[in-house]
Write a structure and sequence with these properties.
The chain is α+β, with helices and mostly antiparallel strands and about 280 residues long. The protein has helices at about 10-150, 175-185, 195-205, and strands at about 155-160, 165-170, 185-190, 220, 230, 255, 265, 270-280. About 60% of the residues lie in helices and about 10% in strands. The radius of gyration is 71 Å and the shape is rod-shaped. The relative contact order is 0.08.
Amino acid sequence: MRYRNAFPKYPRAMHLFLLILFLWKTTEQAYVDERHMEAFLEGSLDEITKGLKGTVNQTIETKLAIVNLTIETKLAIIETNLKEKFTALEEKNRKKITALEKNNTEKITALEAKFTALEKTNREKIAALEQERIKDLAQINKKMELQASCADDSWHFSFSTGSCFKVSTDKKTWTESKTFCENMGSHLVTVDSAEEDNILFQLLKDKGLTNHHVWYGGNDIDNEGTWKWVGSNTVMRYTNWNAGQPNNGGSGENCLGPIPSTWWDRSCTDPNPFICEKDIN
């Protein structure tokens, strides 16, 4: 009311002034209230922000804690499963290794047994071969000694028959040939096998007598048809007669005079080469 005396003559001006003053006050108060509201709102916003931040942080921390717990739990489960699998695998491998070791041990034992048996067999075979070698050497030495007993190089020693043979190209009757051989401590040759027959054939071949009758020791002088060997006076077991022989042809053929490879009976008075045999064994 202090402003009334300032406008005693101008009531309308006073009213206008009061209106302006009222508006100013109102505006000032509104500004103050707005500032207060802004301050309040700013404070509330800060608090809300802080509250939200706290809530969010708490929520995040809670979720992180849950996640961490979940991860740790899963890791623990995984670790347990891995340990169990590793233990099972380790046990499985241990059993396999044990089985392999057992199998290998059995195989090694079997191989050692086979090797021992084979070694024993080889020793026995070597010993037998050594005995045979010693025996063969003894036989060779004996035959060499026997060969040395053949009178000279004109005699051929046969290891298979153990005899010395002498081929004479001189032509004599069967009886003369028999006497000649006996005078040298031998006899007209005796043939007991195809092997010996082949040996004689080779000796005659070497002398160029393959197309000649040659006197052997066989004869049937004492009993016609019963052929014996003059050296042993035994009946022939082995023969190699040519087809149609013996035929006792002509004036009588009682002596064995083969053409090498086949046997013929011949007249004992025919002159032919002959073979002497000296028994060494």
